[in-house]
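User: For a benchmark we're assembling, each entry needs the component sequences followed by a predicted structure for the full assembly. Here are entry 17's components. Please fill in the structure.
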Amino acid sequence: MGNKHGSLENMERERLIPSSLEQTYGVHEDDGEVKACGCFCLGSIRKKFKGLWSNLRAVVVNSWEVARSDPRKVVFSAKLGLALALISFLIFWKEPLPDISEHSVWAILTVVVVFEFSIGATFSKGLNRGLGTLSAGGLALAMAEFAHFCERFGAAWDEAIIIISIFTVGSLATFAKLYPTLKAYEYGFRVFTLTYCYIMASGYRTNEFMGTAVDRFLLIALGAGVGLLVNVGIYPIWAGEDLHNLVVKNFFNVANSLEGIINQYLDCVEYKRIPSKILNYQAYDDRLYTGYRSAVESTSQEDTLMGFAIWEPPHGRYKMYKYPWRNFVKVSGALRHCSFMVMALHGCILSEIQAPADRRRVFQDELQRVSTAGAKVLRELGNKVKKMEKLGSLNILDEVLKAAEDLQTKVDRKSYLLVDANSWEIGKPPIEFQDIQDISKTDDNDPFKYHGYHSFSEARLDLGTSRSPETTNLPFAGTNGFHKSLTREFSFKPERMVIQDEGDTYKSASVLSLVTFTSLLIEFVARLGNLVVAFEELSETAKFKAPPAEGRVEEEEVCGFWGRFWRFVKPRDRNDNLLA
Amino acid sequence: MGNKHGSLENMERERLIPSSLEQTYGVHEDDGEVKACGCFCLGSIRKKFKGLWSNLRAVVVNSWEVARSDPRKVVFSAKLGLALALISFLIFWKEPLPDISEHSVWAILTVVVVFEFSIGATFSKGLNRGLGTLSAGGLALAMAEFAHFCERFGAAWDEAIIIISIFTVGSLATFAKLYPTLKAYEYGFRVFTLTYCYIMASGYRTNEFMGTAVDRFLLIALGAGVGLLVNVGIYPIWAGEDLHNLVVKNFFNVANSLEGIINQYLDCVEYKRIPSKILNYQAYDDRLYTGYRSAVESTSQEDTLMGFAIWEPPHGRYKMYKYPWRNFVKVSGALRHCSFMVMALHGCILSEIQAPADRRRVFQDELQRVSTAGAKVLRELGNKVKKMEKLGSLNILDEVLKAAEDLQTKVDRKSYLLVDANSWEIGKPPIEFQDIQDISKTDDNDPFKYHGYHSFSEARLDLGTSRSPETTNLPFAGTNGFHKSLTREFSFKPERMVIQDEGDTYKSASVLSLVTFTSLLIEFVARLGNLVVAFEELSETAKFKAPPAEGRVEEEEVCGFWGRFWRFVKPRDRNDNLLA
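Assistant: Structure for entry 17:
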C-alpha cells in the first residue's frame, strides 16, 4: 500500500500541482536524474531508497494530519472495513442454503458501492441502486420471456432480440441520465443499464433468468441492509449537520474578512505586490481573501450537501419531518449577497487608486464602528444559526444601522473633503474653501492630530511618494507597452497630458475612492437587512427555539456525568467567537 | 420506460421544486384527492390515464427540447448503445474458448462503467479502473497464497486471514479515497476495494484465484478497448473543447451584462421589486444578472472539465502535447475578477440609494463610451480566444483606457456635482457655488437640457416622489419593526433626526452614489489590463496563431467540399456577436 500511495501521489503532483507551486514547496524531480556512471550503481540505489523512505514518511505524516483534522474520516474507513468483514462471512457459508455462498459476492459489492460518507448519500445511492436493480430486473425478465417466445420463429431471433433490446435500453437509459432534471438519479440509470445487461448476459448462458434476478436481488438487499445498519448504527455522519456547520462557518469567515479589510484600509496597509492568484480568483492563502472567498465558493458544496440532507431522516437536533434544509442554503445565499460587498471593499484595497491616509483618518472612528457592529451582527447571526435560536425581541441591526447612519451623516457634513476642488471647470472656489480642505485634517474628534499643516503642494508631494508605483506583478510587463495598469497609464504617459493635470486627475480619483469605500460599506449594511429576513424565515420554518430570557443563566442541554462535569469546568464565555 | 420516467419526474418535482414554485407553475397534487364515492370509479381512472398521458407527452416534448439543444447527448446515447450491442455478441460466443462466453458479463459491465460523456473522462475512468483492477488483483493473489500457506497451521486460519485482509484493505483504501490530494483517484480506490473483495470471495469458493483474476482482467481489457474505440472513433466529445467554449461564452456573457447594466443605469430603470432570488444569489432569469452570474458560477464546472481535458490526447485544433488547459482556466479566473466589478455595478442598480437622474445625464456620454469600449474589449478577447489568435500589434485597451481617462477627467472637473453642499459643517459655501450646482445641469454638452430651473426645494421634492419607497420584497416586513432596509430607516424614522436632516442625508448619499458607480467602472477597466495579461500568457503557451494582417481577407481553415460551400454561402459578418 505504501508504494501504491507513493506512486499515485507522485502522479498527483505531476498533474495537479502547478509548476509555480512545485518551486515553492520544493517538489523537485531530482530522483529522475540519470548519471553517466550507470543506472544501477550502489549510490543511486541508496538514493532511491532514501527518496522512497522520505516519500513514505511524508505520506504517513500527511495521513496523520488528515486524520487529526477530521477524525470522522478514520471512523468512516473503519466502519466500511467492519461492514465488509461482517458481510464476507457469507463466503464461508455452507448450510442450509449453499447458493448463498455462491452469490455472496453481490452482497459484498453492494456494501462497497452503497457505503457513502454521509447517511443522506448512503440512502440516496441505496434507493437509486434498489430502484435501478428492481426495474431493470423486471424489464429483463419480461424481455427474456419475449425472446424465448420468439425463438420458435427461428434460432437467430432470440439473439437478435437480446442485442436490439440491449442497444435500446442502453441508449434510452443513457439519454435519461443526461436529461437535466434527472441528474440526481444518474446513478440509478447507470445501475439500471448494468443490471439489465448483466441479467441478460448471465441469464442467457444459464437459462436461469428468474433465479439470477431473485438471488441477486436478495443478496443485494442483504448487503444494503448490513451496510446501512453499520453506517447508521455506529457514529453516523450526517450531511445535514455538515451543511449546518458550513453555513455557520461562512458567517464567521465573512465577519473576519470584513473586520480585517476595514482595519487594513484604515492602517493604510497596501499590498506591495498583489498576488496573481487573487487577480485570477484562484485559491490563495490570504486572511482577508479566504474569508469571503470561502463563503462565495461554497455554493456547489452546499447544493451537494442539501441534495443528500433531504434524504436523511429526522435526527439529533433536526427533529422534524421534511426539515427545511433549503432555508439554510437560502440564508447562506443572502450571506453571499453581503459578502460580495465585502469583496468589493477588498477591491478598494487591491485597487491602484488609493485614498490618501489623512482623509481616511477623518472617517476612522465611523468606519471602525460600522465594521465592528457589522461583524458583530454577522457573528451573532452565526451563533444564532449554530445554537438554533430565534432572534428575540432585541433589534440585532440597531447598532450597525446607527453606526452606518452616523457614517453617512459625517460623509454628508464633510463631503468637501471627498472632492478635489483644484481642477473644477467652474473655476477654483474661494480661497477659504481651499484652505478648509487642508485645515479639516485637524478635526477635534480626530485622534490623529497633525502637528503642523502641509501646504497644498507638499501634500501632493507626500501623496506621490507614499504611493509606490511598483505594483508590478505582470509577467509580460516588458513585451508590449500597454500592460501597465490604468493608473500608471494616467501617471506616466507624458504624451497624453501635461504632468500637472495627471497628478490632479489622480489626486481627484484617489480622494473620491474614499466615497466608494464608504458607499460600499453602507450598501453592505443595507444588505444585512435582507440577511436578517432570510434568517427569520429559517428560524420560523425550522422552528428554532426562543432565545433565553435576558439575565437568566443560559440553560443548556446537559446529559450525563461528563456533561455536568463540562458545565462545571467550562470557561464562562464560550459562545463568543467560538468559530472565529 | 414512460411510466418510470413519469414516476421519477414526479419524485423530482416533490423533492426539487420549492413549494412556492409549485404554486407558480401549477404543479398541483389534485390527482391525490380521494373522493368519498370510492377510489376506483370510472371517472378517477379516466382522470389518472389522462394525467399519465399528459405527463408522457410532457416528457416526450421536453426530451425533444433537450435533444435539440444539445444533439451530442443523442449521439452519445446511441454510441453507448452501439458499444453495448457490439460487446454483447460475446454472450453467444461458443468456440474456440467457451470461457469467454461465461465471463462475457465483465466486458459488458466495463463498457457501461467506463463509457463517459467526454473522452477525457473516459480515459481517466478507464485508467483508474485498469490500475485499480491490476493492483487489487496482484494484492489479492498474494494474500490468497498467504492464506493457503497459513491453512497448514489450522483450518480456521485462512478464513481469519481473508476476513482480516478484507477489513484492512477496505479501511485503508477508503481512507486514501478521502485523502484530499487523492480525490481525483477516488474511483480507482473504489474499484480497488471492489476487485479485491470480488477476487477473494469468488476465488475462495472455486479455489481458482489465478483464473478468476486473469480472465476478468482480459475481458475488462476487451470491454475497455471496445468502449474506447467506439467512443473515440465515432463523433468524439472532447472535454477540452467544452472548456474552451465555456470560457468564450463567459466573455460574451459578461460583456452583455456590462452593457445592459450601464444602459439600465443611464435610463434610470429601477427594479420595482428586487427579485428575492437575486438577493439570495440563486439562479434567476434576469438578463443582466445571468450574464455575470454564469461567469462567476462556472468555477467548479471549469475545474471538472480541466480535470478531464488534461487526460485527452492532442486532437483537432489542440495539437500539442500537454496542452495548457490550465491557462484557459486562468483567463477565466481573470475574467471573473473583472466580472465581480460588473456585479458591484449591478449592486448600484439594486441599491436603495439611487443617484438623481439629472446628475447621471451629465456623465452619460462618458459612461456610455467606457461601457461600449469595455464590452468591445471583452468581445474582442472572447473572439480571439475562440479563433485562437494572438492579439497582434494593436493595443486592444487603447480605446477603453482613453474613455476611462476622459470619464475620470470629467468627474474631476465636475466633482462639485457629486457632492451636496447643503449640510457642510464648515457652513454653506458662497451662494454662487450653490447656484452652480443647479445651473450645471445645463451643460452645453448635455443632450438633455432642462427647459427651466428647479428651485432647490422643488428638486428635493422631485427626488422624494420619483423614488418610490415600495421596494418591499421582505416577506416578514410586518412582524418586527426593523426589517425595513437602511434607506427607509433613514427616511421614515422621525425619532432620530428632524425630517429636514434625513432628506439631506439621503440626498447627499444619493448624489455620492454616482461617484461609486464611476469608480467601480474605472476599476473594472483597470482590471481589464490583468485580463489581457492572462490572455497573452495563454496565447503564448498555447501557441495561438498570429492574427491576419490588416486589409487582407481573413483566411479560414476550409476543408472539403462542404467547407468551401459554406464559405460561399455564409453571411459575411459571422464573428460579430456570434455568441451574444
